[in-house]
Design goal:
The complex is a heterodimer of chains A (418) and B (86). Chain A is of the alpha/beta class. Chain A is 27% helix and 25% strand. Classes of the chains: A alpha/beta (418), B mainly beta (86). Chain A binds chain B through residues 240, 242-243, 246, 251-256, 300-305, 309-311, 344, 400-401, 413-416, and chain B through 1-2, 14-15, 17, 19, 21-22, 40-41, 43-50, 53, 55, 71, 73-76. The complex binds flavin-adenine dinucleotide (FAD) and zinc ion.
């Protein structure tokens, strides 16, 4: 691999930066692989990387129907944290957070992981109590968490309006100082480059529209560039999971919803953490370019049209300016949407399905960017070991059959509420 | 932001409605045998189609009725068919 360093930068400067080699692609699609991964988002690419890196399995192809990372990976608001309540979710996200902390060095690619801290605002005594319970549970599991009172919050974040006159007065916050953001595209590119270097073949504009299934066992995939045999198939296509599952005769316990995000014009640094507003849902952080990235809940009905309505923008913005009145004149620049796969209990679906050798990594909804390194790690281990990685085991596709679920919000089997 | 064709009130703004989701799963009540798999399918499994979906909407801030509509989930176009509320 052409390593990136100050020295290599200087050396290439001598040749006007003309002889950097391409980082992935360029190898032909073979007729058979040990593992075919469907979906070249962060999760699929990370799975390929850890298969090669941790398990020495590099006869692997990643097939992506459009361009790398062009799905939810490049559409998300990049918030990373591990402040979950249920054991399985908290341990999984914390494992991911530890991997994030070393990811740029691991991949020799700057994913711009920035631990600027994550703030979950409480607007009532009830929320404060709930957050204290969550923080205590986290600390009990060895995950950092602090409860901030209003003064501590105001010192951390001078722009925020903590006065009692604001529409939903702030009572305090749950603070995870190790939380933060990362550069989404860089995550896809970094994993792709490192995986390619270890021998993984990566194909863009290579969509899958069916599988070859013998008995109850998958033996290959039909791609737009021809049939490819595979010992194992990993489906990692986020919002489109049900559509591919249907091609294999599988019904998944999830529904797909558009979810929107939008950004403002670039500003000088004004918001130095990631903030989650909890009277209704709104979240905000500032990119390194200076834009304010914002988002809220799902669009109000399921579907596959990646577009959002102005209602959601108005809803989110009106909440944000109650706590940041100084932003009320800032202009929005762009809005976009992705298709989020929301399971019945709001927690991911990982591992084997009823079709043998066909594994799924889905159900991450609008909260799976933070899990990217762990999703790759655990899916790779699940493929290599032929049994679920311990962190992924609780998220089996069959868990509802067995009568248990991981419902963080306690709202029941209605995807639109998660 | 959709305009939803309520059969009683005409086209109304989506914000007047509460989403009831996929209308196709039917509770296996009154079945003779106790079939866990049928209950499992009713509660958890969804087709989640890219295309025609029959779904329920509650016109909460309108006539207050539950209605059944057909929508193309790829375009959000409502389609009048015989399974929709007339
Ligand atoms: C607006 C929005 C905001 C979000 N905010 C956050 C956040 O702040 N923090 C967080 O942790 N998470 C967030 N998420 C969720 C996060 O983006 C996803 O959970 C995560 O990126 C999923 O990664 P992935 O690789 O599984 O999916 P994707 O990046 O979507 O990759 C799946 C890939 O599969 C491809 N594909 C689909 N069908 C086929 C086919 N038939 N054949 C071949 N390829 C196919 C797609 O083109 C796509 O590139 C957000 C999501 C959205 C939409
Ligand atoms: Zn009506």
């Amino acid at each position: 691999m052409q390593r990136y360093s100050l020295l290599s930068l200087a050396r290439h400067a001598l040749h006007d930066h003309r002889d950097w080699r391409r980082n992935f692609g360029g190898r032909p699609l073979k007729s058979a692989y040990d593992v075919v991964i469907v979906g070249g988002g962060g999760h699929g690419l990370a799975t390929a990387y850890y298969l090669a890196k941790n398990h020495g399995i590099n006869n692997v192809a990643v097939v992506e129907k459009s361009w790398l990372g062009g799905g939810n990976t490049a559409r998300n608001t990049t918030m990373i944290r591990s402040d979950y309540l249920t054991k399985a979710n908290a341990e999984y996200k914390e494992f991911a957070l530890k991997l994030w902390e070393n990811l740029s060095a691991e991949l020799n690619f700057n994913v711009m992981f920035s631990q600027r801290g994550y703030i979950d605002l409480a607007h009532s005594d009830g929320q404060m109590e709930n957050f204290t319970w969550r923080a205590n549970t986290m600390r009990h599991r060895g995950i950092d968490a602090e409860i901030l009172n209003v003064d501590q919050l105001a010192r951390l974040l001078p722009e925020i309006d903590v006065s009692p006159a604001t529409r939903y007065p702030i009572h305090g916050a749950l603070y995870q100082s190790r939380g933060g953001t990362a550069r989404h595209d860089a995550v896809a590119w970094g994993y792709a480059r490192a995986a390619h270097d270890l021998g993984v073949d990566i194909f863009e504009h290579c969509g899958v529209d069916g599988f070859k299934i013998d008995g109850h066992r998958v033996t290959g995939v039909n791609t737009s560039q021809g049939h490819v045999s595979a010992d194992t198939v990993v489906v990692s296509v986020a919002g489109h999971s049900s559509l591919l599952a249907a091609k294999a005769g599988i019904k998944l316990p999830l529904e797909s919803f558009p979810v929107q995000a939008f950004i403002s014009e670039p500003l000088k640094p004004v918001i130095n953490t990631v903030i989650n507003f909890n009277m209704g849902l709104a979240y905000i952080n500032q990119t390194d370019k200076g834009e304010l990235v914002m988002g809220g809940g799902l669009e109000p009905r399921n579907g596959y049209l990646p577009r959002g309505g102005f209602d959601r923008i108005e809803d989110v913005v009106s909440r944000i300016i109650t706590i940041f009145p100084s932003l009320s004149r800032v202009r929005l620049m762009r809005t976009w949407a992705g298709i989020a796969d929301i399971p019945m209990d709001g927690s991911p679906l990982l591992g084997e399905s009823v079709v043998k050798n066909m594994l799924f990594n889905c159900g991450w909804g609008y909260a799976g960017f933070k899990a990217t390194p762990a999703a790759g790690w655990t899916m790779a281990a699940t493929v290599a070991d032929g049994k679920p990685h311990p962190l992924a085991a609780p998220f089996s596709l069959s868990r509802f059959h067995d009568g248990y679920s991981h419902d963080e919000g306690g709202v029941g089997p209605t995807p639109s509420l998660h | 932001m959709l305009l939803i064709p309520c059969p009683w009130c005409g086209e109304r703004h989506e914000s007047e409605f509460t989403y009831g989701g996929d209308a196709s799963p039917v509770a296996p009540v009154g079945e003779q045998e106790h079939k866990t798999s049928k209950w499992y399918a009713y509660v958890y499994e969804r087709d989640n189609p890219a295309g025609l979906l029959h779904e329920l909407w509650h016109h909460s801030f309108g006539c207050g009725r539950w209605i059944r509509l057909a929508r193309d989930t790829r375009t959000n176009a409502f389609i009048n068919d015989e399974e929709s509320t007339p």
